[in-house]
Amino acid sequence: MTTLDEWVPPATGAVELTDGRRLTYCLYGPDGGVPVVSSNPTPHTRWERPDVVEAYERLGVRVLSYDRPGYGGSSRQPGRTVADAASDVAALADAQGWGRFAVTGFSGGGAPALACAALLPDRVTRCAVVAGTAPYDASGLDFFAGMSPDNADGFRLATRGAADFRVRTDRVADQVLAELAAAAPDAGRLARMRAMLLDGRDGWTDDMVSLVRPWGFEVSDLAVPVGVWYCPDDRNSPPGHGEWLLANVGHAEGYRYAGGHDPGPDTTEQLLRWLLP
What we know:
GO terms for molecular function: hydrolase activity. This is Alpha/beta hydrolase. The structure is a single chain. This protein is of the alpha/beta class. Helix content is 39%, strand content 17%. It contains nine helices and eight strands. It has an eight-stranded mixed sheet with strand order 1-2-4-3-5-6-7-8, with helices on both faces.
């Protein structure tokens, strides 16, 4: 297993889309492994942590982790909706020759994963969502119940549009990077955080705005098996969101995990095993 201190960026691939945009991605796990497309959190990078990569290798999954528009080397797509993720993922899968594949999404990547399951039902085998949010206008849900004040303020600000939210993005990113540099983390973590917060500010902004606007599909229409992982102590995506998804997403199975917003290695392994055919 690669240690954190030895971490180096993996090779990056790119797909040129018919609308002129470019998507960048990395591939992990063994060639010939079960294909999975990963939609990472908000903000994110295509560079996965070494412990996650080790799990991919151990369980035999071939994971494509990509930069959503506005992150890393992926072209920005102003005004994008959650539903737009499906056509991007289809193009990425086509480039790998994948006819069928599973999808997974963590936190802000949960909604894009659900979009793929809803809009690519003939291609997506299973969809796993971890700490995902419900739609902003979800009927019967108090969106902010149990949410940290800072996260709630971010969602409220996103309703005002990209220009207003970008001011917050710049402020928070600069603060986090300064605190991180002072803590002297390992080189790999610093590189990944810098990629998220320096090369992903447009993507972060557009992610948040898309999450508080109509998603472009109905979660109740999903016909693909969906696994919903959520934590009762999560204050970023409170448990009410996971419970709402379980009650409203077709063919959903629920799994709880402990520890807050970020799942531990046991949850990651459980999720990957669930995705396997």
